[in-house]
Amino acid sequence: MRKEILVLAGFLIAFLGLNRAGAVVSGQRYDSGGAWASGWSGTEDDGVAAPEPDTAPPNISGQWSGSIMDSVDGTGTFGLDITQKSGKLTGTWDVSLGGGSSGKFTGSVGGSSKVSIKILTPEKKHRGCHANAKGTTSGTNITLSYKFAGCGPNSGDEFGTIDLSPI
């Protein structure tokens, strides 16, 4: 049995490793002989989805206004003034809820029209209080869902939606 294992191991080393070992010893490049893939053009349907090509993000810079529906404060108006550099977004926001408020935001928009915004609140009681908003844009509207974070023990209980159109 031991002799058979040694013969099998010797065969595998000779068959699989001889070309590579010879190339290393002689300082030459080892070519594994990729003939198995030489007939594949990459265009056949192999059941794997091809990645989507990179596309430029839509331009959503400018002033936007619309409605907000908040789980705590109800409905009101919401506005964004967006500055866009490539896919990065910065700007200011304002809301009519709770007596009105305004602040700054940062975010991004991707080639797939996905929008992500961090709405920074001016609340001094809880430093780091913000709302994370995610959604999509068609170029003629922005639809976001948000949830508050970092605003105290119950901040995750406040959430809502924002629907905007360009002004």
- Summed up, the domain count is 2
| Helical coverage, percent range | 10-25%
CATH fold label of the largest domain: Lipocalin
Low-confidence stretches: 21-26, 34-51
Beta-strand residue percentage: 35-45%
The name of the CATH architecture of the largest domain is Beta Barrel
Strand order of the largest sheet: 1-2-3-4-5-6-7-8
Q: Identify the CATH homologous superfamily of the largest domain.
A: Quinohemoprotein amine dehydrogenase alpha subunit, domain 2
Just give the CATH class of the largest domain: Mainly Beta
Span of the ends, CA to CA: 84 Å
Q: Helix count?
A: 1
- Overall pLDDT level: 80
Find the count of extended strands (DSSP E, 2+ residues). Answer: 8
**Biggest sheet overview:** 8 strands, antiparallel, barrel
Helix/strand structural class: mainly beta
Can you walk me through this structure?
The protein is mainly beta. The chain has two domains: 2-34, no CATH class; 62-166, Lipocalin (Beta Barrel). The chain is built from one helix and eight strands, in the order αββββββββ. It is globular and about 85 Å long. Mean pLDDT is 80; it is low at 21-26 and 34-51.
